[in-house]
């Protein structure tokens, strides 16, 4: 048996022993997606975390995702293979600075993208993900101004789609801000038949060049439902692993970062490895712990999101 096969077998054994479920985001490395019990976007993963009857959730994603799982399922042990798997959007929005921003806009409803800390969620009226943000903002009472945090690119897109004026917190994703417009235009010239599909965390000038915009799951489903046979994909390349399996005959083209760098691979998501997944199932560490009053405050706007999401 190869070292990798032995590791996979050991993880499967630990999953049984621990009554654990492995949840993975589409940006995880292919070998992690292959061993996961469920792969999804942020909204689907939250729903799964809330409904699973496993005792242990091994969350192969980033910290705010595992934290959301803990908020929804406090009685379960939630482990994250690498505790340093953060997110630039969550880092861009410290809770105390956010509290000061809210105080400047006391009449505003606060909608926060799920890519934020529990302490920011606890200050929010409603949480959204990239798959339901437009729909949820459209449902807000028309007479209330709205503050949207922390992703300004997603916020601008939601503003455009919903027709609602939003006061934006200036956060951004270091991964989705690196795509080169020059490279995209060149690829469009080389492949005029291709559809450009993009995640809404991309900058607006790139979204303006896209034929379809959506969450990771929506992008994946679009490659299946669209009649096009070539796609230029503007999001983290981890998604290509599932796309290749779902549409093996279609052509998928990755867009390079500025100066040809490969900085469109999320450095946080990629901290998780099979070895670390094995170790966290073995030791049940690092586990997500949370202060109960904070958890309860953060839970309310997540529950509202789940109730309002279609
Ligand atoms: P999804 O909402 O598509 O899962 O995206 C989350 C994310 O972190 C994208 O960078
Ligand atoms: Fe955060 Fe961007 Fe990585 Fe998504 S891709 S987890 S938004 S840093």
Tell me what you see in this structure.
The chain has three domains: 3-86 and 269-289, NadA-like (Rossmann fold, 3-Layer(aba) Sandwich); 89-173, NadA-like (Rossmann fold, 3-Layer(aba) Sandwich), CATH 3.40.50; 181-254, NadA-like (Rossmann fold, 3-Layer(aba) Sandwich). It is built from 15 helices and twelve strands. It has helices at residues 3-18, 30-35, 42-51, 63-72, 88-91, 95-103, 118-121, 133-138, 152-162, 181-190, 204-207, 216-225, 240-246, 274-283, 292-308; strands at residues 20-25, 38-40, 56-60, 77-79, 109-113, 126-128, 146-149, 166-168, 195-198, 212-213, 230-234, 251-254. The strands form three sheets. Strands 2-1-3-4 form a four-stranded parallel beta sheet, sandwiched between helices. Strands 6-5-7-8 form a four-stranded parallel beta sheet. The longest helix is centred in the C-terminal third of the chain and has 17 residues, at 292-308. The protein starts with a helix and ends with a helix. The model has no long low-confidence stretch (mean pLDDT 96). The structure holds 1,3-dihydroxyacetonephosphate (13P) and iron/sulfur cluster.
């Amino acid at each position: 048996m190869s070292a990798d096969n032995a590791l996979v077998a050991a993880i499967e054994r630990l999953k049984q022993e621990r009554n654990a479920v492995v949840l993975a985001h589409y940006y995880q490395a292919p070998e992690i997606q292959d061993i996961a019990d469920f792969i999804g976007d942020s909204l689907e993963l939250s729903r799964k975390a809330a409904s699973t009857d496993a005792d242990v959730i091994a969350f192969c994603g980033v910290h705010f995702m595992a934290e959301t799982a803990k908020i929804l399922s406090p009685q379960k042990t939630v482990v994250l293979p690498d505790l340093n798997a953060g997110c630039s959007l969550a880092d861009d929005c410290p809770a105390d600075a956010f509290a000061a921003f809210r105080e400047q806009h006391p009449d505003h409803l606060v909608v926060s993208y799920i890519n934020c800390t529990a302490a920011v969620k606890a200050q929010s009226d409603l949480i959204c993900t990239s798959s339901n943000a437009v729909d949820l903002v459209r449902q807000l009472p028309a007479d209330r101004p709205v503050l949207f945090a922390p992703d300004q690119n997603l916020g601008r897109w939601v503003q455009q789609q919903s027709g609602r004026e939003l006061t934006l917190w200036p956060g951004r994703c270091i991964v989705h801000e690196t795509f080169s417009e020059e490279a995209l235009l060149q690829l469009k010239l080389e492949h005029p038949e291709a559809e450009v599909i993009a995640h809404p965390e991309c900058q607006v000038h790139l979204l303006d060049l896209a034929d379809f915009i959506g969450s990771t799951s929506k992008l994946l489903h679009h490659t299946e439902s669209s009649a096009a046979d070539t796609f230029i994909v503007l999001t983290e390349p981890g998604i290509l692993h599932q796309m290749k399996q779902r549409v093996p005959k279609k052509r998928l083209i990755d867009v390079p970062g500025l100066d040809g760098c490969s900085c469109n691979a999320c450095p946080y998501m990629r901290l998780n490895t099979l070895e670390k997944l094995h170790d966290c199932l073995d030791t049940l560490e690092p586990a997500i712990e949370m202060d109960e009053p904070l958890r309860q405050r953060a839970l309310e706007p997540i529950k509202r999101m789940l109730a309002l999401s279609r």
